[in-house]
Amino acid sequence: MNEFDGILTAVVFLPLAGAILLLVFARTDRWVRLTALGVALADFALAALVFLRYEVDSNDRFQLLDRFEWISTEVFTAQYQLGVDGLSAPLVLLTGLLGLCAVLASWSIKMRVKEYFVWLLVLQTAVMGVFVSLDFLLFFLFWELELIPMYFLISIWGSGRKEYSAMKFLVFTFLGSAFMLVSILALFLADGGAQLDMIGWAESGADLALTVIPISVVFWFFFVAFAVKLPLLPVHTWLPDAHTDAPTAVSMMLAGVLLKMGGYGLLRITVGMFPDMTIDYALILTVLAVVTILYAAVVTLRQTDLKRLIAYSSVSHMGLVVLGIGAVGMAAGTYSNLGLTGAAMQLFTHGTITGLLFLCVGVLYERTHTRYIPDLGGLAQRMPFLAVAFVIAGLASLGLPGLSGFVSEILVFLGAFKAFPWLTAFGAFGIVIAAGYILWMLQRALFGPTRERFAHVTPSNWVERIPMALLIISIVVVGVYPSLLTDVFNAGLASLPAMTGG
Amino acid sequence: MTGHDVYLLSPEISLVGLALLVMALDLVTRRKALLTLVAVAGLALPLALSIVLWGEVSSEERYSRLVGVMGALSIDRFALFFKFLILGVTGLLLAASVDYSKRLPRLRGEFIGLILLSATGMMLLASATELITLYVALELSALPMIALATFRMTPRGGEAGLKFLILSGVSSALLLYGMVLVYGITGTTYLSEIGAALATSVDGSIPFGGVALLVGVILIVAGFGFKISAAPFHMWAPDVYQGGPTPVVAFLSVASKAAGFAILMRVFYTAFPSVELDWSMLFAILAVVSMTLGNLMAMVQSNIKRLLAYSTVAHAGYMLVGLAAVASRIDGDGTAAGPGSLLFYLGAYAVTNLTAFFVVMVVANKLETREIDDYSGLSRRSPFLAGALAFALVSLIGIPPTGLFIGKIFLFTSAVQSGLAWLAVAGVVNSVISAYYYLRIVRLMYMGEASDKKKLRVSAAFGVALAVSAASVLALGVAPRLITWLTDGAARVLIG
């Protein structure tokens, strides 16, 4: 039963160890930054190694396992169980990449530097933990752990109504996870025998008669927790506030990986363990998705604050994830993982694209001290590198072929169209609107006549350019050569019970 | 009393000896710091003796126990778990209160001695299996606390002490009256014999037998309810917590509560398993009332000690969930899930609440304030204190990676297992509500501005005690197996 490869434990706990190191030893701000950078770099390297070591063709669905018995009492047994499959391996890579970019994007933080980097690293441990945990209790532990650093990061280093936003974020997520806890306990007490072991549930599926709570309640409780995190209408209202008031790097982490926890939960648990329920309720999911895509897209058009605009566009793009999931069940008896692969791809591509968008806004704000779009304009000449990065991110976000956003969107729509042609056709309008708001935003913020008051604006520096370049590279590479990721996601999703008819 | 009895009582006897030694030493030495040192080091002896006794009863067999003093005491794993817990709490508390006791130059020996005597009573309570012994042990644990509550000799402290004395007396009277009724019906004061007598119906032979028994049981619940500060018997707690010296209050909220639950479990398991009263429902209702009332009242407090008082009321409610789960399993296949979870929760709660109270203690001592608003900006004045308090509060909410997160998971799981899913839901909802007032303090400490920028320094002994208790909260959160082997073994004594 006990196996220990070690690399996943390392990738999860390295940032935490780094945080402790900072707390105990780092004295000057310079050392704090360099140590954090070193840790983030090492963690990224480990994450890349995890991704490379994952074997697509292997017969073992879950690989690189670390497991031993963690809690064992008469009430309760739980495993310390980490592992990756095709679904989580790319997300580990994404977390490593964004963690590194977030540290670099935080270089200009001046206030309470040590505390800031400690929380940022703790956050990374929590998110990594969510993606690789294969035991429900451990999963829940990391899921909740992420709240604390996030709360502090927004409420101390944020701007505007930061304390209100942080509290709102906390309350929404906490309430969502309370629902999840009830579902986890119900699964634990079910007569399936798999208990808290996510591998066991992933293999058998959880569509069975539960003794305590009706299975549909368990399904919807999980769904609510993930929908809050994703977020889906109507529980999305925390996100624009949290994004707007969070510091740049935290917005990157929030949009880049924290929202992905919701999508990951939907794929791993909702689809992975309740395939039949997902298919039964696919219509409801698809309607919710289409409403989210269109509503958020329309709202995005009306935004005048850059960060708020990108935040709402994230809500719209996350709707695509659910659209892809809704496509899982097609005509009776046949399944397709086209939509699911699209949904999983969307998690990755949106993570890098929105990360880059928020980074660009952060760099811009640093110099202009405003995010109010009508006040901006004519910055392309002053900041050429930033303008290029911003435009690439924008084009990727609206789905330009050759960039990564296109790949995930086309997969989602292809999958969804077969399942619900009319609804999908409606949803596709979201893309049209996206083209509108992105191009309009770029035009107003970057182009047009140069303005007097931005004469002092300096071009971006190297510390800012490195993370931008990293993210651009990942966007272009995935756009040009998508099977790098789609093969891996496919391998993970093909073994879901829904796909194998199990 | 035979030699064997002395052996069984050796942890308690050595603790009384230690108390007397400290008080005698107080008369002859001028170096008062020595007293704390002797007391903390001296605790090693009762601890070692308890470990020796554990060795004798550690076999897996349910009835592995040593019975002594004419059957009035049972040394089993259940009792020993509480002895370990109480000794640990006492040690940490004495080490942490070294700064506080400096301010009592003339009464330092008495302060330590009384705490040790009260701890003796609690340890005795955990192994009592006979009503009179139980009552004597209960008074031994309570009387020193009453004296300690008035220790500062301030008007507020006097008021707190008096309230505590009167309400403690009333609750003892209720308890005694309940015991008398039970004795009248069964004709014995031994818990196991009461259980046997009640198993064969008594209703027919004694006039009003069933009703009298019911009243007796309810009176006993009320008497213990006071001890564990569960609503609606919690009225004393806020006033005593606010007025009493902080170390004493900390001891009261942790050790006294643990001992109260120990005896409550022992009595209901051994004596009343077959009483025709749905005591699962009784405890479930008390649980909901306690946690809801405690949490709602805590929201409106401005004094941190009053807030913590209502917080302990709420936590008594969570613990009663475990008791209700225990109770409803009696007729079933009898797993030790409920008691095991409750014991774990008691352990995790003890270290968590001690951590919180230690910080409150040192802030009250250095800043002369107990107002929550004065915690504003504490993180900049002392990252260590603020971090420890924030961590304890996170644990009290039940957010991982803390001991009470695991504790709550255990408790609520055992409730659902016993068919009390609604009780688990009430518990989860209450935890979410409680986040509001606990996080308010965290927010103040980290986001508020400090009125005074001066750094706070703490003594080494206090620092070690705080670090140990905070580390225990973390350790129980990430590696619950550290004590689950103890709690499971202890719980199996109650249910085979």
Describe this structure in words.
The complex is a heterodimer of chains A (502) and B (496). Chain A is mainly alpha-helical and 502 residues long. Chain A is built from 21 helices and 3 strands. Chain A has a 3-stranded antiparallel β-sheet with strand order 1-2-3. In chain A, strand 2 and strand 3 form a beta hairpin. In chain A, helix 9 packs antiparallel against helix 11 and helix 13 packs antiparallel against helix 14. The two termini of chain A are 25 Å apart. With 496 residues, chain B is an all-alpha fold. A two-stranded antiparallel ribbon of chain B has the order 1-2. At the A-B interface, strand 2, helix 5, helix 6 and helix 7 of A face helix 16, helix 19, helix 20 and helix 22 of B.
Order of helices and strands of chain A: EHHEEHHHHHHHHHHHHHHHHHHH
The proportion of residues in beta strands of chain A is under 5%
Order of helices and strands of chain B: HHHHEEHHHHHHHHHHHHHHHHHH
Task: Give the strand content of chain B.
Answer: under 5%
Indicate the structural class of chain B: mainly alpha
How can the largest sheet of chain B be summarized?
2 strands, antiparallel
Count the E strands of chain A. Answer: 3
List the total number of helices of chain B: 22
Count of extended strands of chain B:
2
Query: Unreliable stretches of chain B, pLDDT < 50, 5 or more residues?
Result: none
Low-confidence stretches of chain A: none
Order of strands in the sheet with most strands of chain A? 1-2-3
Arithmetic mean of pLDDT of chain A: 84
Rg result of chain A = 22 Å
Overall form of chain A: globular
Helix content of chain A: over 70%
Cross-sheet strand order for the largest sheet of chain B: 1-2
**SS-based class of chain A:** mainly alpha
